[in-house]
Amino acid sequence: MNLIIRLFVTAIVAYLLTKILPGVHFEGFSTAIIFAIVLGVLNLIVKPVLSLFGLPLTIITLGLFALVINAIIILIADYFIDSMTVNGFWWAFIFSIALSLVTSLANSMFSDGD
């Protein structure tokens, strides 16, 4: 059940961010739900591989390269979802930072302490 709540929170936050950020667009809330699912799968499968290959750069940049990896994950999601549009790397970068911050804040509000 926790997974479903997290996916739904991610979908809501992502949808609201597309209303604020002009460089990221979803055709509707259903796209946000699809995005949350695709993002979860990419974070499970692709992100560990990218993190492993990017480990030297992540160490050199004191962890800041992890933000670039998150932006790349957003761009990969954009590639797979036709009803989603991201206008370049910098919008993906800004979107990924905002999504991470707001989602972690929202998840901490809904967590039951375990």
From TrEMBL:
Alphabetized UniProt keyword annotations: Membrane, Transmembrane, Transmembrane helix
Keyword Transmembrane helix: yes
TM region(s), chain numbering: 28-46, 53-77, 89-110
Domain of life: Bacteria
InterPro entries reported for this sequence: Phage_holin_4_2
Presence of the UniProt keyword Nucleotide-binding in the record: no
Protein name: Putative membrane protein
Upper taxonomic lineage: Bacteria, Pseudomonadati, Bacteroidota, Flavobacteriia, Flavobacteriales
